[in-house]
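Hi team, as promised in this morning's meeting, here are the two structures we talked about. I've kept the exact order from the run log so nobody has to guess. The first one is mostly here for context; it's the second one we should focus on when we meet again. Sequence first, then the predicted structure tokens.
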Amino acid sequence: MLGDLMYKLATFVRPSALPVVRSGGRVWHLAPDAAALFGPSGPDLEGWVATGSAVVVKSNPARTVYRVELPGGVVYAKHCRVTTPRAWGREVIRVPKARLEFDNAVTLRARGVPAVEPLAWGCRDSLWPGESFLVTRAQPGVPFIQFLEHDLAALTAGEQRAVRRQLAVALAHLFARLHDAGVAHPDPHPGNLLFELPASRVPRFALLDAHVVRVGKPLSWPESLANLALFNRWFRMRATRTDRARFWHAYRRSRATLPAPTHADLRDGAAQLERETHESNLRLWAGRESRWLGSNRTIRRVRRGACHGFAVRDLPEDFLAALLADPDAALLRPGVRVLKNCTSGTVAVLPMDAPGGPVPVVLKRVNLRSRLDPWKNLFRRSHAVRSWANGHALRDRWLPTPRPLAMFHRYRRGLPREGYVLTEMVPAAESLRPAAGRDAFLRLARLLRDLHDRGVSHRDLKAPNILLAHGVDPVLIDLVGVRTRVRPTAARRAKELARLNASFAGDPAVSRADRLRFLLAYLAPGPRLGEAGWKSWWKLVSRATAEKVARNRSTGRVLG
């Protein structure tokens, strides 16, 4: 913050040498070769929008980005707004966001770092903080995240393998160049990179959102590690260990301002990077959990009559309005298939109208178990709220569970009573059973290891709460018993594995060899879980399983 203030004060002492144009109540600062492109009055965003030359490509409350076709070429115009008191305070302390991005882009390009070409920045003709504008020249390519999530899948399997190898090396060289040039990007995810894959198949990158970068001396190893861990967060969940190792070796060997690495440096540095990334992801997931119970880009609060709750923003409005008007009537409509109906609640499959035709969704009604439940729900998270929040938290951790679409309570006299949870439906799925096959159980073992490693504890891990669908990983449902932001101990891990193991107690179709294969598959991936070997884990799980079976037998509860 102090650096931002000093930089702003320096701009008053040493004003910019760029040509200045005043027009329409704005002050525009033009790059040396930009005057011929915009004319004597500078950029005219309102005129571009009025004539249809400008098309919105991205919009949110904080900014709008336009793609503008001009006679001299294509440019992008970013309109940065001040929407909150916090944003206004930042504008008081630092230079306008558009100017910061303009200056950073100029500095990056001067240091040989690929970045967008800045053409102009502008602000209101006033000393009072407010909106600002940035215009950059269009460059070939697409956002890198778009290529990874859509375009890459269109290639053949052989092309994908070759492109992934080239991407790992090209990204490594990019970050080595950034760090050697003294550039640290505090938000280096794929959405902030522009990507081009020319006919030569040698990837090209350019930095976007340059206003957030920090420029200084070449990064030390601790600084480099911290920045790489931020970048690796996205790829650790989606890229293979081989691709990540290829990136690491290419990066470390490309760094010119760090000592040449030895074999031990490469080995130890890779392990350190994986640990730092894992810890960084745990902090990220924990920090994002509050967003599932508020309004943001993906979630909105909903209220109609006696029903209050939350819904995803892309849920069809007509369907949601009808559901909130009378959720119990929705369970009785024609075409509804009831999956479960008992004292604790009702689960049914409903048809939801969508642009491509009706889509099946699952609605769960959670009944009150006692007269005190409405009062308890005022001071704790209800079953419905926990299912909603845990579903989003698991999906944020890249763990398979149906996407929660809506959650609400029916209120009476100010108290939350019956809860309702709407989720996507897993097509052609069935509960876990021994006939599922060895491969399904081994995939489930690896999923449970990921669950625990990512800070999640599932205290009701039984066969009916795990769905299997053809060609996909097992899917977790009924998430009331889930706890996040925990670090499961060996005893907790063993107890949850025992809960699942108890689901098949006495089942002759599940042999001791099958149980051992499951345990070994659970222990295999990731760092070793302490010093205990598989025999010690076998004893822990067996003891916990026996205790669970005896406890259920004494209370008369059925294992399942």
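And here is the second protein, the one for discussion:
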Amino acid sequence: MPLNSAAEIALAQALFRPRAVALIGVSDDAGRTAGRPLHFLRKHGFAGPTYPINPNRDTVQGERAYKSLADVPGPVDHAYILVNTPLVEAAVAACAEGGVRAATILASGFAEAGAEGVALQRRLLEIARGSGLRLVGPNSLGVVDTHTPLALTANAAFAAEKLLKGRIAVLSQSGSQIGTFVSRGFPRGIGFSKLISVGNEADLSVGEIGAALAGDPETDAFLLFLETIREREHFARFGDLAKAAGKPIIAYRLGLSEVGRELAVSHTGAMVGSDAGVDAFLRRHGILRVDHLETLLEAPALVIGRTPPTTARRSVGAITTTGGGAAMVADRLGLRNVEVTPPSAETYARLKAAKAPALPGRMIDMTLAGTRPDIMLAALDILMEAPEFDLVLAVVGSSAQFHGELAVKPIIECARAKKPIAAFLVPHAEASLHALAENGVAGFRTPEACADAIAAYFGWHQAAPAEPLPGATRDRALAALSAASRAVLDERQSLALFDALDIAVAPCAVVDPERLAPLPFAFPVVAKVLSADITHKTDAGGVALGIASGEELAVRSRQMLASVRDKYPSASIAGILVQPMERGIGEALVGYRHDPQVGPVVTVGMGGTLAEVYRDFSVRLAPVSVAEAEEMLAEVRGFATLRGFRGAPAGDLAALASAVARLSELAALPGTPVLEAEINPLIVKAFGAVAVDGVVRLARP
């Protein structure tokens, strides 16, 4: 059974293996942007019919030109529209009428240019959808397939004398970057199967194109140059299909600024309305995230043919011919929570028997012993077999430049082992890097990119499915929400929703300070102003702690009301919410948010504002399983106090993980009625965890 549907296979063929191509508005000057596609098609050997269309010329670049698309003598699968912006709409209409299957649009001035551009882009889409025509762009620098070969691009980098065939596909939201990969990869011997500049993604998105290529027999991995996430359902399918095909996806993303803050009524919104949500999306769908452009080019060989690590351990065995070079990588790895691990006693013994340097330390340093290929190979084989290492790092010094046979060749010879290996070459060593690439070994120019790739490998994730939301829980949650008459729930209503999700909440009572009734729990208590209009009550003077008696409760409640009414005179106040003082080992923030880019996400961090201040939190797509929630807790450094730090009592992390998973189930409610929900704080005790405050915002006015 084919991995892709018939429609996806047909789309991939129209884009990358068209039977015939039309160039609408092609210039006679091969040096101009609109003239390059014809020149590059010929230069790189496209063998199918190519129809230059230019109403003002009989010939273009020495070839017959046609006045219009209707004049060409045969069917066209793919048209590249090269005309200026005002003429694009007519060109798209001509493609739709002529039965063209795919059209790529070079021009800018559409959705990125304001309201008029948005309207024009919408009209293009309406025209195309009425005929079955699929669009790439606008703002696309083209489509390339090195195997067809097809160089349907206006990118100047394709003036290169030769395009290297490879087995890596590049999908870029930045048009010029397809040329960047070609130019940077060529001297390293790194080639590509397909490259596409998706532009504005008015129609075809990275996800839909990637999904159509998941079954491509000429592609083993995908590289993504991203600025945002569009059409997340298609993107998710791309991730799932690539995973099923055993083809890793590696992403580099621009645009790390925060988005969607206008939706935030909590600390969760400030934290997750940012790059963290995109990171969670990529992680959920098995996409590796790298921080350096150089890593994007170099990392594929580290993961092609492999699957995500099956344990949380991040142990690296290091062998080097230059101690300083290896230390540069180890230093960077330490910042990414990846450990260069000393060999075990058994591994030391094997190294000594093989006459390899075996001095105690975190790495096997061959520097003083001299670089001998037989010793290097023997030591590498031992590290590859050592059970304490999950990945082997080989760092080569000066010999890599002119004597690759000494240390680089042994790396190549052992690279077919089950364990991944990364090689950092300290000097400028183009020939050795080329040899590594030819043999499918991940070779790195810089310690930063090497550490980045290794950390990305260990962060490669395959999430366990969340448990289905029980019907009874769903019904209770929907009932709690139905009682709300406003978009933002007050604290009592929010706690009722959390309780419906089987999260333990502190008991509470609403009182009138002028007519106090007996409380259903003992003093001391905490009192808070109850108002859906005031999210952060402490800032408004609306919280009083450690109240020891009814008399004190009455006095401090009146004081709070006066303070709040002075600061928020128009706020609707439903009374004073009273709860018993809850104490525990520590506090956590647990949040849920419907992110505008990636959909529902769940967050956990230190309680109060500390998670936001120190950026110490973990984010996942919602819903999550309890097991995945436990992984999230392990990523929050501040939770060291809950793990029994230096002999202190430990908190109930199982109860905290359960609360994270339960809150994440808001994503499973029909119609996703909740935009945002936050428990802050959740008091983590030695046994159990209890929500004492919260806010919920609904997806309605």
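Starting points for discussion:
The first strand starts at residue 21 and ends at 24.
Residues 257-268 have pLDDT under 50 and may be disordered.
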